[in-house]
């Protein structure tokens, strides 16, 4: 089906982006990493020394920010023309992002961008509120989970590979705090859509998960 929409949501480290990218490649769809957009706003706030608690200032800044996600294999992320691909993955940004992601007007602005992206053609979009809010009519909604230990380990390995030395314990604590914040916020909290398929990926290999999701799509009426 043309213009197929696949929503992949879940907590941090559940494997969303790895899985979403693989599915996008197999089905020749766009991949949209919505977390990168929230991260770009958090990064810019840190960079400009705007205190995260100043909702109005953050909101104003978000409205004036230009975010571009590259669709080619490199998938670079640009914020006001600046390449922030690596910078938005820092532990500082990870610790700050859920604060600004709770602001309704920041979300409004980014959701508008996300729906614009979806308007270009078929997409696999990952995030926290894709199935519940951004693409409520998606053809398939998947909510990925995994045990907190396994999610922390995956994230820790990624950070190690990019040269960031945090302890596994620190990574797990940061992650749990961020998930808690994402689940508790008033607007579009992290929760599975009522029609989402919940997939626990603990102990599963990436290939197995991708195959399962591709089968779900094939078997859709
Ligand atoms: O997916 P990623 O871990 O990069 O997302 C970073 C943060 O951005 C999340 O912890 C959450 O606070 C926010 N986010 C969100 N809604 C989305 C995607 C991300 O609130 N759709």
**DSSP helix count?**
9
How many strands? 8
Low-pLDDT runs of 5+ residues are none
Overall outline: globular
The radius of gyration is: 17 Å
Question: Terminal Cα separation, in Å?
Answer: 11 Å
**Chemical compounds bound to the protein:** cytidine-5'-monophosphate
Strand proportion, as a percent range, falls in 5-15%
Could you report the average pLDDT, rounded to the nearest whole number?
Answer: 95
Order of helices and strands: EHEHHEEEHHEHEHHEH
Order of strands, main sheet, comes to 2-6-1-7-8
Largest sheet: 5 strands, parallel
InterPro entries: Cytidylate_kin (IPR003136), Cytidylate_kinase_dom (IPR011994), P-loop_NTPase (IPR027417)
Subcellular location: Cytoplasm
GO molecular function: ATP binding; CMP kinase activity; dCMP kinase activity
EC number: 2.7.4.25
Write a structural description:
- Helix 3 (55-63) runs parallel beside helix 5 (104-118) and helix 4 (91-100) runs parallel beside helix 8.
- The strands form 2 sheets. Strands 2-6-1-7-8 form a 5-stranded parallel sheet, with helices on both faces.
- The model has no long low-confidence stretch (mean pLDDT 95).
- It is built from 9 helices and 8 strands.
- The chain is an alpha/beta fold.
- It binds cytidine-5'-monophosphate.
- Cytidine-5'-monophosphate binds at residues 12, 34-35, 38-39, 97-98, 101, 127-130, 178, 182.
- Keywords: ATP-binding, Cytoplasm, Kinase, Nucleotide-binding, Transferase.
- It is an enzyme of class 2 (transferase).
- It holds the Pfam family Cytidylate_kin.
- It is found in: Cytoplasm.
- InterPro entries: Cytidylate_kin, Cytidylate_kinase_dom, P-loop_NTPase.
């Amino acid at each position: 089906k043309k213009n197929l929409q696949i929503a992949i949501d879940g907590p941090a480290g559940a494997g969303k982006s790895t899985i979403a990218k693989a599915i996008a490649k197999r089905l020749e769809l766009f991949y949209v990493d919505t977390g990168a957009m929230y991260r770009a706003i958090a990064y810019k706030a840190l960079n400009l020394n705007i205190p995260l608690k100043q909702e109005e200032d953050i909101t104003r800044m978000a409205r004036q920010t230009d975010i571009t996600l590259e669709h080619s294999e490199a998938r670079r992320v640009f914020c006001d023309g600046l390449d922030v691909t690596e910078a938005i993955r820092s532990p500082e940004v990870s610790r700050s992002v859920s604060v600004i992601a709770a602001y309704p007007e920041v979300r409004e602005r980014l959701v508008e961008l996300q729906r614009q992206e979806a308007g270009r053609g078929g997409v696999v979009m990952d995030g926290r509120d894709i199935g519940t809010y951004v693409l409520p009519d998606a053809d398939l909604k998947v909510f990925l989970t995994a045990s907190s230990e396994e999610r922390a380990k995956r994230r820790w390995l990624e950070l190690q590979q990019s040269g960031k030395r945090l302890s596994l314990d620190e990574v797990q604590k940061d992650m749990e705090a961020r998930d808690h914040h994402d689940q508790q916020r008033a607007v579009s909290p992290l929760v599975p859509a009522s029609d989402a398929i919940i997939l626990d990926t603990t102990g599963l290999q990436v290939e197995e998960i991708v195959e399962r999701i591709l089968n779900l799509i094939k078997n859709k009426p």
